[in-house]
Amino acid sequence: MPNISNRAQQMPASPVRKLVPFALQAKQRGTKVYHLNIGQPDIETPETALNALKNIDLKVLEYALSEGNIEYRKALTEYYHSLDFTDLTPDNFIVTNGGSEALNFAISTLCDDGDEVIIPEPYYANYNGFTSAFNVNVVAVPSTIDTGFALPPIEEFEKKITAKTRAIVICNPGNPTGYLYTREELQQLADIALKYDIVIISDEVYREYVYDGKQQISMFAFPELAENCIIIDSESKRYSMCGVRIGCLITRSKKIHDAAMLFAQARLSPVLLGQIAATAAHQNDGAYIRAVREEYTHRRNVLVDLLNAIPGVICPKPKGAFYCVAELPVDDTEKFAQWLLEKYTLNNETIMVAPAGGFYSNPELGKKQVRIAYVLKEEDLRKSVAILQDSLEKYKLEFNL
């Protein structure tokens, strides 16, 4: 038998995908499953992007430049100029195979074995995978549902900083919570990064989707962080293009950029066809984003209002992204989520949710919480919440809760 590395054995399972076998079995039994568990938008990809792929006239699908082709990096530069970051040039961008690879580059550029990154939790579960792969330790700072998952007191971050701390990772607006950080909260993070000369890695892939007249504030809005900031971006959620696998790492720091480029060169190139589609997507005039934002706003309002009408359910209203975290009146959402797929149906339908324990370093903190993605149409969201309400009643009866 081949030897399996300790690194592979220690890689955490995805809390979003590990219930997939149970969902497949439910579907094989003829049960309709509403997927609330994964952030795969149902919104149509821009026609400009699809047409660009249909109309490719290349004779050879060659390697792209390791840093990304200049046409796409120019499109990114123009986009960031529209956000008032007019100092950026194509040389500030490294195009990656999704935001995930950008995060991998950031972690591997900054951290050695045994180093630490601080992350407010709950956090995007794959951060665990990215750090585990490089033997980097996550040091979590818990936020709470009572505050809507606001940034924990900055003193709690400062207590966690050690000689091994290399970065603070945030997601703004957040996955899984949908929390949108305020300028004051971000300024506190900027101040502490400068005080201890650590880097802020700001995952901003949901930037466009903020609600209630709010505006996402990028960490690039703090010019004092020029040498201490990495932005992670992606086209996956902006333009409903998860399958093209195009993201980018952006930094004003030449030192960080040049180091990250070594990893970019080692993996040869980002996806050529994805860059063609993404370049075309950026030709849209903004109407696409506005329409999608309006749709997500409506879905959020419907979903959160219905959830909070269920006895015992607590769900803060997110200000961004397309997720919410809800606390349910159950003993264990891992058990509940599996039960939904194995034992329960309503009119031969059920739902799939993401237990929130996998979004915490200490799973007990999320034991009664689930993440729900509002990437379904209103009618399906309403059906899903009706299923949830009925299932909670039956689950409590079955387990004497």
Automatic annotation (TrEMBL):
Pfam families (UniProt xref): Aminotran_1_2
Record has Transferase as a keyword: yes
EC number, as in UniProt: 2.6.1.1
Gene Ontology biological-process entries: amino acid metabolic process
Boundaries of every Aminotransferase class I/classII large domain copy: 32-385
GO terms, molecular function: L-aspartate:2-oxoglutarate aminotransferase activity; pyridoxal phosphate binding
Enzyme class: transferase
Alphabetical list of InterPro entries matching this protein: Aminotransferase_I/II_large, AspAT/PAT-like, PyrdxlP-dep_Trfase, PyrdxlP-dep_Trfase_major, PyrdxlP-dep_Trfase_small
UniProt keyword terms in alphabetical order: Aminotransferase, Pyridoxal phosphate, Transferase
Record family assignment: Belongs to the class-I pyridoxal-phosphate-dependent aminotransferase family.
NCBIfam families: PRK07568.1 (NF005744)
Name the record gives this protein: Aspartate aminotransferase
Annotated organism of origin: Chryseobacterium aquaticum subsp. greenlandense
